[in-house]
Amino acid sequence: MKTCLILNPWAGRGAAGQRRPELEAALRAAGVDFDMVETHARGGATELTYQAMERGYGCVAAVGGDGTINEVVNGLLGGREQSGREAVLGIVPLGTGSDFVKALDGVEPNDLAGAARRLATGRIRSVDVGMITVESPAGAERRHFINGLGMGIDAQVAVESLKLTGLKGFAVYLMAIIRALATYKANVMTVRFDGNEVRRRLLFASVASGRSQGGGFLMTPEALIDDGLLDLCIVEKLRLDQIIRHLPKLMEGSHTKLREVTMGRARHVEVTCQSGIPVATDGEVVATAATRVCVDVLPGAVRLVV
Predict the structure, then answer these.
(1) What percentage of residues in the chain have a pLDDT greater than 70?
(2) CA angle at residue 226 from 252 to 149, to 5 degrees?
């Protein structure tokens, strides 16, 4: 199976681009039949995925972090919709957070030899995808996500992380959290999911297929990427001292027992907020003032090389 690797050279704060020669050597050693192209702008990996599908590649592999994977997933689903062509998703995890691959057994971020072996073996697993429609003053937009969707302060963290160019790894998320806490205002949000409703002043509402977001926070620790359901984590407004005290619980996944936290599972989710909220999919900012977000699960929509 011929593979087109789409490399985001800026992923991992530039580490992905620096490791290109090492990755190419690992792919050749594993016997992978491949070509590699680089993306140079936001959204570029989606367009490159369309082109790869038109050229008949059986596998399109994202080389980078969750944002790069997100763009390739949107390209795979968009290409299928437009042309009827099919391709499987490969992943070489070289991102800052690499949260999605934490749900895959035996997959380690930054392990080039392991990624090359997976692409050479070509074992396939179908995984779920979330589809969202976001309404904001800028208009309506539809996108897909493979790991997680943040609405509220977790999306504001994604906004802030884009401004931090001098840090790497978990330090990016930690500093972004500090900056988001200083600026974010919790607004009244209404969350409806499969017959349930929560209407409160919320810190955030997160919807996920994967377990981890934000560089290692176990937001939805019991989520499965192939169960045909989306997991929810809804957190009420908290004082700053409560946030600081509970943050370690979010990292270990024990926050689910807190009184201020509502967990759930659903096939369809609708979130509205009259004041507008930031929204991010797989760490990529989609809107900064969304008033309505609709989310649906697409079971087994992407075939993933594992």
Answers:
(1) 98
(2) 60
Query: Residue 175's pLDDT is what?
Result: 85
Q: How far apart are CA 59 and CA 303, in angstroms?
A: 10
Cα separation, 166 vs 184, whole angstroms: 23
pLDDT in tens, 197-248: 999 999 999 999 999 998 888 999 999 999 999 999 999 999 989 998 998 9
Could you tell me where the DSSP H helices lie in 5-144? Answer: 15-18, 20-30, 44-54, 66-83, 112-121
DSSP 221-255: TT--TTSS-EEEEEEE---HHHHHHHHHHHHHTGG
pLDDT at 41: 86
SS3 30: helix
% helix / strand / coil in the chain, to the nearest 5? 30, 40, 30
Query: Amino acid letter at 244?
Result: I
Which domains are delineated in the chain?
Answer: 3-122 (3.40.50.10330), 129-300 (2.60.200.40)
Mean pLDDT of 252-269: 97
